[in-house]
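ping. complex inputs:
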Amino acid sequence: MSATPLSTLAHVVRSKNAGPTVLTIDIFFNDAQAYARAASSAQLSEAAVAALYQRAARDVRRTLLPSIQAMKFSMPRRICAGDPGDGDVYGAQQHAALLGVAV
Amino acid sequence: MSATERLLRTHRPADGPLRILAASGQLGYGIPAESLEHGVLRQPHFIGCDMGSIDPGPYYLGSGTMAAPAAMVRRDLELVLVAARRLDVPLVIGSAGTAGAAPQLDATVDLIRAIALDKGLHFRLTTVHSDLHPDQVLDALARGQLEPIGPMPLPSAADVLRCSHIVGQCGTETLARALQTPTDVLVAGRACDTAIFATLPEMLGYPAGLCLHMAKIVECTSLCCRPSGRDAMLAELSMDSFTLESMNSLAHATPASVAAHALYEQADPLEVDEPTGTLLLHDARYEALDAHRTRVSGAGFRRRARATLKIEGAAPVGERCVLLAGVADPTLLAQLPQALATVEHRVRQLVPGAWAFHSHIYGQGAVAPLPRERHSRHEAGLVLEFLAPQADLARTAAGVFKQNLLHLSYPGRVSTAGNLAFAFTPSEIDAGTAYRFVLYHVMHEAPLQDIFQVRQHAIGIRH
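pong. complex structure:
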């Protein structure tokens, strides 16, 4: 099977703060097949996503939600929301790095 | 008899479902009036509105000002006040004025008084004050009772004393205490979003897990629908399930859209910590009643012996001046970080003092890290922040930086007339006091009764 960008397998890829210290990313897949493919992909393991976001692997937690064909990643924010130097107070644009991940 | 007393005395879960109308998840940005009216026609037993959160950053808690425009806050408050008084049902508002600190609660109450006067309304208002005295936090710090949430350091005593406002998030345990007093309208300072919608149902005997699950979904009104929106949302709660229905007939609560909402802004979608315990969503079920409504059941709840308290505090970090400019020259674009470093070095010699500099280079990784090969060579936007103890110093550093960057000579420069494009002048703008979160901690063994002061006010009633 050839690699497909995540953006074509999912209809929602979003990021947001879960409180000012934690970033959480939700991915909702188009169907059960897309979900299964993503859930078993090494590119969407905790380690791979940690590398993508330049975090330690132990800092990224993945939750699989097969019943709703969704996947969640939570990780500490690099900087507390709104601290001087922060570039995304709501954390709402941190999803973009995932869109091109080849699954 | 107050609206709350009547509801608590007369409604029995066995008589039929409890209708909860969530009017706004963010009061002050324009409640869709038509959907609210549809909700009112369904004769809800009470109306709830969320007015804030910590999401907009530390400025609002720090400054004590509202994020939403005052004129729109007044418009929205008027809509919900008039609706609740017309039905004579309780109105519960949480996180008054964005962050729920004392000045924001006061500003909200002032608006309510003005609306009541204008509309000839009279009612019993109960307020819950959520502010902590720094000594209460210092005591907890000294006793080792502060626990960071996420990667937040423990504050020093000086950090705590620098906070301009410290609030605690009250939960159902506190709002229940407030709602036991004769109340038509409840306005809480900082409150858990869920407490706004779950407290009255819990007081009526509905299972806590269901109440909190329902509250967690409706606190964002129709955000849980497809297409998502900001329209009022109706929940009909029974002892074993609740039904969700948007008051906009074009926004549909589907099993998928509602289940998806459980993930929203939540690090763990299956176990959600609330002050009084943990909401357990492992066995939650979502079933379509029809194309527009979804029935939800299965939430559990693990109550803890003593309610916990989440506290939030923000402290000033200086006065901020922001310089805005664009760059389109490809040679300069290829060496922007070095150019900024060179100019910063020069300005530090020209403008001594404790000013801090933060650059945001849009098009070159300001929002998220971007590999150098993907940096924009077409144009970039510069948002340059200057923070200093005095606004004058921040402004001076920004002004001198602007002119030195405008005329910086760099290798390969051909545009010797100027390096920056300004959309307008002045391009350096005072952005007021900057704040940062110092406290985002759980405070164990907190004296909730002392912290959350419940007060009663007669609005528009002559004594």
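The radius of gyration of chain B is 25 Å.
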